[in-house]
Design brief:
CATH architecture of the largest domain: Alpha Horseshoe
Shape: globular
Strand order of the largest sheet: 1-2
Largest sheet: 2 strands, antiparallel
CATH class of the largest domain: Mainly Alpha
Distance between the termini: 69 Å
Strand content: under 5%
Number of strands: 4
Length: 517
């Protein structure tokens, strides 16, 4: 019996040793597979090949968070990762300048001695690229309008296009041409507008052998007996900014049916030729259709004719809401201070008075939002108190309050800045208004604002906005960001370093090297 026990015990020991040696022999293979997901050290050294490839791919293909994490993990792999990163950076093999910035951050994380020279070389390219981009952006800001106002104007266009599409649908239902116009209706309602979506329908009556260029055929299509063809041709020519189309489109605006005339206002506004000013003013005042009148106002704003401002101010008292709000936006686009008082009057006369609206039309949210945005575009400090009052008034519509916060960011007034900061710090204020206040503050280019933005980098709610604003701020943000490199928070430190790399100021090279030694 004891002999049997001895044999069983021996067999158990042999099986245990067999399993142990099997696991030991296959451990390197296990570590290599595991290395594709994370970094594992084996007896033979760092199994990093798969990790480096995987993490480098994450630098290029992941979202911002994933890229920051990949940079940190590459840093832990040290020299093998640094060699790969240096090769990729020096060969300009990354897909964009943005991806290259994550590569440089990862190289910093490795602590490699080559980082200083490579940063210096890369910053020369970044500096040249940023200079060109900043000059272009400055020119656009000087000539353009805020994103909020632009969206409000585009919403007016969209409403007019829908009106035209609905009109065409009704006409085609009566005539039985429904199949032919479906594509055109979809084009009119499309978010993305360009000439190519209108050309096929506009030229549908032309044969393949018809002589003439595309533009010549479109101009000829303006004479079509079919209203939908005329409208399609106008929309295409408007997107093309075709000056030769101005006179025939003016003819359509003065003589055609309402939805065709509405299309003419969009086309003339896009083309932007001053020959259309006189007829647009007349249609804005006397047109029978509210879409034509409102569209004429928007077109005048796009053309930017200063002499049209008194005519637009007069339409702030129009009996149609669409016309009032469109006139206000057009005034904002032109940006004339003569309109400040009438715009403020709209906002003041639309308020509650003993439970009653003083002026029901001026109480309309669309009219009020348009007036608020217009005051922001004009940028007069005379509007500060009014806009602060609207932003903080809990009885006001949310869209109007949000627009007021955005508008205050365009007014260079310490009172406006103080009010925006107060709203931002008030956790009880609606999140949309706080976001608008933060965006408005981020437009202000000074050291104090830069410090505020740096302080929000780790904020879940405002971090992404702060990052973008600091990059746009450029060299003004450098000193507060360098100071922030001292943080003990590794993720925040990496975020700060990445922003400094994207700014590309050579002053930051030494602080970056010291921060990662």
């Amino acid at each position: 019996m004891s002999g049997v026990r001895w044999r069983v015990s021996l067999l158990f020991v042999l099986i245990t040793l067999s399993i142990f040696f099997s696991l030991y022999i296959n451990s390197d293979r296990f570590m290599e597979v595991r290395g594709n997901e994370t970094y594992i050290q084996t007896g033979a050294g760092v199994s990093s090949g798969g990790s480096i490839l995987n993490l480098t791919n994450r630098l290029e293909a992941g979202n911002h968070e994933a890229r920051l994490n990949a940079a940190a993990e590459l840093g832990k792999l040290g020299e093998p990762a640094a060699n790969n990163l240096v090769d990729k950076i020096e060969s300009n093999n990354s897909s964009s300048e943005e991806i290259n910035s994550y590569m440089l951050l990862a190289l910093l994380e490795t602590g490699d001695d080559r980082a200083e020279n490579i940063l210096s070389e890369s910053f020369e390219k970044i500096e040249a690229s940023n200079k060109a981009a900043n000059e272009s952006a400055a020119e656009e800001r000087k000539q353009g309008i805020s994103e909020d106002t632009l969206q409000a104007i585009e919403a007016k266009d969209k409403a007019i296009r829908k009106y035209i599409a609905d009109s065409i649908a009704m006409d085609s239902a009566r005539t039985g041409d429904r199949g032919e116009t479906n594509a055109f209706e979809r084009a009119l309602k499309s978010e993305i507008q360009n000439s190519s979506i209108y050309v096929p329908f506009a030229l549908s009556d032309f044969g393949p052998e018809e002589p003439g260029s595309e533009t010549e055929k479109l101009l000829e299509a303006l004479k079509s007996n079919k209203g939908s063809i005329r409208v399609a041709a106008m929309m295409a020519l408007g997107e093309m900014r075709e000056k030769a189309a101005v006179d025939p489109i003016i003819g359509i605006l003065t003589r055609d049916y309402p939805s065709a005339k509405a299309g003419a206002t969009i086309a003339l506004g896009k083309i932007g030729d001053e020959r259309a000013v006189e007829v647009l003013r007349k249609e804005m005042k006397d047109g029978d259709d509210e879409y034509v009148r409102g569209g004429s106002a928007i077109a005048l704003g796009r053309i930017g004719d200063e002499s049209s401002v008194p005519y637009l101010i007069d339409r702030l008292r129009d009996q149609r809401i669409k016309v009032r709000s469109s006139a206000a936006l057009a005034i904002g686009e032109i940006g004339n201070e003569a309109a400040v008082k009438p715009l403020i009057e709209i906002l003041e006369t639309g308020k509650d008075s003993a439970g009653q609206k003083k002026n029901s039309m001026n109480a309309n949210a669309d009219v009020r939002k348009s007036a608020v945005l217009a005051l922001g575009e004009i940028g007069s400090t005379n509007a500060t108190e009014t806009l602060i009052g609207i932003m903080t008034d809990k009885e006001e519509e949310l869209d109007v309050r949000t627009a007021a916060a955005s508008a205050l960011g365009n007014i260079e007034d310490p009172k406006a800045i103080e009010a925006l900061k107060k709203v931002l710090d008030d956790k009880n204020t609606e999140v949309n208004i706080r976001n608008a206040a933060f965006l408005a503050l981020s437009k202000i280019k000074d050291q104090e604002t830069a410090r505020m933005l740096v302080g929000k980098l780790g904020d879940q709610e405002f971090g992404a906005i702060a990052r973008k604003a600091l990059i746009e701020m450029g060299e003004l943000a450098v000193d507060p960001l360098i100071e922030n490199l001292k943080t003990e928070d590794k993720k925040l430190k990496a975020e700060t370093a990445l922003i400094l790399i994207e700014i590309g100021d050579k002053r930051v090279i030494q602080p970056l090297i010291l921060a990662y030694q």
